[in-house]
Amino acid sequence: xxxxxxxxxxxxxxxxxxxxxxxxxxxxFLKGTARSGWGEHLFADRRYDAQGRPRxxxxxxxxxxxxxxxLVAGRNFGCGSSREHAVWxxxxxxxxxxxGLSFADIFRGNALKNGLLPVVVDEAVHARLVAGPGSVVxxxxxxxxxxxxxxxxxxxxxxxFARYCLLNGIDELQFLLGExxxxxxxxxxxGPISGGIPS
Length: 199
Prior knowledge:
alpha/beta
C-alpha cells in the first residue's frame, strides 16, 4: 500500500449528494478481485455514452482532470452496497483523497483500509472548494490539515490507527505481521494455555 503523508494536487469536482457505490463503479464490472485495472470504469455510466465514448462535459473527462489526486464530492458519498471496487476504481483513476461533507460508514472504512483518504470538511470550506474547481489543495495527513489555494486551512480527523497505517503504507494484516515478535513474547510470558486459562 502506498504511503500517504502530504501531497499537493488540483481538484476534480463531482459534488452530487448521495452518490452510491453503483454510480462509482456499476455492478456489471465487478468480475474480478484484483485491486488494479478499475480506473477506466470509474463513474462509467456518467463518463461514457451508450456507445462507450467519453462525454466531454463530465468532469473526469476534461483535460484538467488528468493527474488530479483529489476528488471533491458532496454529502453521503459512497452510500449503498459495500464494495471495495469503488475504492479501487477511485485509486485506479489516480485519486489519493476524496473531500466531502460526509461519507457512508462502510465506504469510509473500505477507503481507509485500502489507502484512500476520506476527508470531511464543513460547509464553508466545501463551498470554497466548489467555487474554485481545479484549484490546488494540499492534503497533510500527518498534521491532519487541508490547505486551499488561497491559504484557507481546515483541520480534519482520521481514526488514529487508520492514520498510522496510511502514514506507514501498511494495511491491517501488515501491521499485525509487524507485531509478530511482540505477540510471541507475550505468549512466552503467559506460558502454555489450558482450557482457555493460563496454567
